[in-house]
Design a protein that fits this description.
heterodimer, A: about 120 residues, alpha+beta, hypothetical protein PF0899 fold, three-stranded antiparallel sheet, 3 helices, 6 strands, elongated, B: about 220 residues, alpha/beta, Rossmann fold, seven-stranded parallel sheet
Chain lengths: ~120, ~220
């Protein structure tokens, strides 16, 4: 249930930026979460509703954009997307090289938010 | 009527944790104390491995332990009983350790004379993989009764670890665990993973782990 810890951090960032921008109410929060993370949107929203109660972010909706797991091959010049739940393999589909570096997939970012 | 505004944030949710983790790593490097984060499912043998490791390193490497448990001190008591420095962190329901919790554990541990600290993380293959604890190495245990399919179910854990200890190999003859499939699945996710096959019960394979540990600590002290 690391969703709880993650939600606390999201709320902290959101309230901080809301204050800096003199917002009265937070409407929508746009998150970018990497495909390698097991975060579940529905749970995240429930925790957020609970933790944000009584703050200006109370009732705000979380919108999650999942970033695909992308790997830059270390053997050939290619970059490729990995669907781990289907393949369980990070190796390059073109050359079989398994020395790539992760381009995306581990993001945990608050991107933007809509405020009043 | 109030207008809606879109505010650009682009802030990493785990930035605070990552910063603290990096500071812990740096600070311990200065003190020449290596920190290993040990993760696994419940019951796979983390405490047994630590007990065996204390035995194997006796007289050459001083090992301290940070024990994390949701709400008990059973493991810490076992370790304290053999006279090793140990700190118990009660996470009170939290499913993982983060850098702040590890920092509290480090503060409570008498660091003088220690060469190595092992964190026994909460038994869980999901959440602990997400948080940098400040460790110099991430290690995990998979025990034979859990099955050889775990890399498929918990890929992140197998991706973030440097070392895999396959424990309870004395159970191999009792089930259909396929060591070759496991190795293939693990290396597909993480070709840099070092793998040892061990049994904390019989002692099989433990010498290789202890020797690896001694070599790693020696290299760490030389700043590698």
């Amino acid at each position: 249930m690391h969703e709880m810890a993650v939600t606390e951090s999201i709320l902290k960032i959101v309230l901080n930026h809301a204050e800096m921008n003199k917002a009265e109410k937070v409407i929508t929060i746009y998150l970018q979460i990497g495909g390698l993370s097991g975060l579940e949107g529905e749970w995240l929203q429930r925790y957020f509703d609970y933790l944000s109660k009584g703050t200006i972010a109370g009732g705000a909706k979380l919108k999650i954009e999942k970033t695909p797991l992308m790997v830059k091959c270390g053997t050939c010049p290619g970059a490729y997307e990995v669907r781990l739940e289907q393949t369980g393999n990070l190796a390059c589909p073109d050359c079989g090289g398994n020395n790539g570096t992760l381009l995306s997939g581990r993001e945990y970012t608050v991107k933007t938010m809509e405020v009043q | 009527m109030t207008a809606f505004r879109l505010i650009e944030i682009k802030e990493d949710i785990r930035a605070d944790n990552s910063r603290l983790a990096a500071a812990i790593r740096e600070q311990l490097r200065g003190k020449k104390i290596m920190l290993i984060n040990l993760m696994s499912s419940p019951g796979s043998g983390k405490t047994s491995l630590i007990m065996r490791t204390l035995e194997g390193l006796k007289g050459s490497i001083n090992l301290g332990v940070i024990e994390a448990d949701i709400d008990s001190a059973v493991d810490a008591e076992k370790i304290a009983a053999v006279g090793a420095p140990v700190v118990q962190l009660r996470t009170g329901g939290f499913c993982h350790l983060d850098a702040a919790m590890v920092n509290r554990g480090l503060d409570a541990l008498p660091e003088t004379g220690l060469d190595l600290i092992i964190i026994e993380n909460i038994g869980n293959l999901v959440c602990p993989a997400e948080f940098d604890t400040g460790a110099h190495k991430n290690a995990m245990i998979l025990s034979v009764p859990e099955g050889d399919d775990k890399p498929l179910k918990y890929p992140l854990m197998f991706t973030v670890c440097d070392l895999l200890l396959v424990n309870k190999i004395d159970y191999l003859s009792l089930g259909d665990f396929d060591m070759n499939s496991l190795r293939e699945r693990v290396l597909n996710l993480n070709p840099r993973m070092t793998i040892f096959e061990i049994s904390c019960k019989t002692g099989a394979g433990l010498e290789a782990w202890i020797n690896w540990l001694k070599k790693e600590i020696a290299a760490f002290r030389k700043g590698r």
